[in-house]
Amino acid sequence: MKSDLFTDFDENYDHALIQPPPQVNNSWADSFANDEKAMSDFPLFVRRERFRQKQTAIHCHIDFCALLVVRAGRGVRAVNGITSSLARGDIFLMAPGACHSWRETLDLTVDGVYFQPSLWDQHTWSILLQMPDLASHLNPSLPTLEPHDHNDHFGHLSPEPHSRVEAVFKEMREEFNSMKVPLRLSARARLLTLLIQLAQWRENKTLATRPAKGAGIAEVLEFCEANFHRPITNAQLAAMMNFCEAHFRDVFLQEVGTTPGAYLRHLRLQHSQKLLADNKMPIADVARMSGFSSATYFGQAFQMRFAISPREFRKQNRTARKG
Q1: List of residues 6+ apart from 140 with CB closer than 8 A
Q2: What is the pLDDT of residue 221?
Q3: Do the beta carbons of residue 48 and residue 8 sit within 8 Å?
Q4: Which of 95-104, 177-186, 227-236 has the lowest mean pLDDT?
Q5: CATH class of the 212-322 domain in this structure
Q6: Is the model's pTM score more than 0.70?
Q7: What would the pLDDT profile of 294-320 be if each residue is shown by its tens digit?
Q8: How does strand 11-13 pair with strand 44-51?
Q9: Which of 109, 132, 181, 263, by CA, is between 20 and 30 Å from 146?
Q10: For domain 4-203, which CATH number applies: 3.40.50.1970, 1.10.150.650, 2.60.120.280, 3.90.25.10?
């Protein structure tokens, strides 16, 4: 069964951009002002986003900031031409004028808080920017990203502080979606407290510069993507990280948001859809070339995931192409 890390989201980007435009400039008015949840007195937007597309266009946040926390899945993020792989718990803090894009995403889920500096009065904002790490990331009048290798990666949350941040985000999201002004005030106060807390964690080294576990998991994921059509065991994957199987499974679940078996099944089913486009390939061959031990097991897994049999999927795909 799919983890709720992948199924609970507000915005779903489920299409692939084959030739994305060079750059898109997004103002607050373009991005949020016309949304039914927008309130002119509260330039604040809270939402959980899921990316299944391979690549987004480079887009610039012209006049608003963003706090982004990776919740699940994987992918690559590009900022100022610098790319970095993503892991659960990564935090990014974007200043107005910053540009970024998402690439090579696979069920990437991100908790996003978007806001303008005018969310608070000028005095409060100036006090917030007295914290050096917040100022270096959020103040567009400074050469903000130079001390950070031109990357807005703010740090990486280990599981315990990440669970605390997720709890705060859950409250903010509920308050934002309530459409009640008093609760929007509460969400604004939570964001202020959260930004200060993250800056304190960064200062006292609670935040890691880069996730030690995430790097190992990234290698495991790359191995799975290159070899999913072959038999792969948990023991084999655990050995890549020098972990016992039980600990490896726990780490994988924390970092990726699903079990190793479910992740491999996802890759195999995704590949099988491409092979089913070939009307001449027998179903048994599709199953074998996708990494399934038998056509029967493949059919059961496909039916459970897509609520349709492989044969019916092929038939629908053939009809759609003719139409």
Answers
A1: 95, 96, 97
A2: 81
A3: yes
A4: 95-104
A5: mainly alpha
A6: no
A7: 999 999 999 999 999 999 999 887 776
A8: parallel
A9: 109
A10: 2.60.120.280
Q: What is the DSSP string of 196-236?
A: HHHHHHHHTT-SBSS-HHHHHHHHHHHHHHHHTTS---HHH
Confidence of residue 214 (pLDDT cuts 50, 70, 90): very low
Residue 6 clears pLDDT 80, i.e. is over it = no
What pLDDT is attached to residue 228? Answer: 92
Report the mean per-residue pLDDT for the chain. Answer: 85
The 10 Å Cβ neighbour count of residue 280 is 5
DSSP state of 63: S
Give yes or no on whether 4-203 and 212-322 have one common fold: no
Token code pair at residue 140: 């567009």
Find the largest Cα–Cα distance for the chain.
Answer: 69
Query: Which position has the token pair 């191995």?
Result: 223
What is the Cα–Cα distance from 261 to 248, expressed in whole angstroms? 12
Query: Residue for token digits 């195999």?
Result: 268
CA distances from 320 to 111, 161, 313, 316 (A): 35, 47, 10, 6
Domain boundaries, the chain: 4-203, 212-322
Main-chain dihedrals φ then ψ at residue 104, nearest 5 degrees: 50, 45
